[in-house]
Amino acid sequence: MDRKTKIFCLVSGADRVNTYVVACLKTGRAVIIDPAGDLQQVLRTLESERLEPVMILNTHGHGDHVAGNRDLKEMLAIPTAMHRADDEFFKDPQLRREFERILGHRCPDPVDRPLEDREKISLGGTEIEVIHTPGHTPGSVCFLCAGNLFTGDTLFVGAVGRTDLPGGSLEQLLTSLENRLITLPAETIVWPGHDYGDTPTSTIGREMQENPYITDFLLAE
Questions:
Q1: What was the pLDDT predicted at 122?
Q2: How do residues 199-208 score in pLDDT, each as one tens digit?
Q3: Is the pLDDT at 177 greater than 70, yes or no?
Q4: CATH class of 5-215
Q5: What residue ranges do the domains of the chain occupy?
Q6: First to last CA, the chain
Q7: What would the pLDDT profile of 62-81 be if each residue is shown by its tens digit?
Q8: In what order do the strands lie in the sheet with 189-192?
């Protein structure tokens, strides 16, 4: 673990989403990434570690990853943030009904802070960079913080997120992997949105060696 941040992975909800609390060790300021089912875990972590929550970040707008947005926002009085493309995409009433039917989760409310690619969010002693990685959804992003990459459903350990839902595109996702993620340092730690692999976390270097979506689609001669 780097000396700038402390990371807590809280697994909750029927879909076993990885909710992350990412804290700056210098200031104690923290963000919550993809709040899912059990918000009490989040509240207990913030209290026990004496952290100051400043924002809710979403890697994308699928209902399992935004399930706790509304309640947590009210509890903590902090803003929500998501990439502008997903914030706009999930406002369509017909699309919302379709997603709620397919996934069984409520779609996100409009966020307080639409995010842009390469935008940086300050935590005082460190910062989080927004990396737009469309493919799983139009506004999917990864969050890069002090050598840690929170990938949501863009990149799993040994796999990638599904692209068969409305707004998904395998071609876009592969382009995101090629141009935005595998260009990062090999030692970058991958913190995925679900624990679907043989280990809970990985590195960009390991994924370049073992993930078939990278080795077979992008690096094959």
A1: 96
A2: 999 999 999 9
A3: yes
A4: alpha beta
A5: 5-215
A6: 35
A7: 999 999 999 999 999 999 99
A8: 120-122, 127-132, 141-145, 148-152, 189-192, 202-203
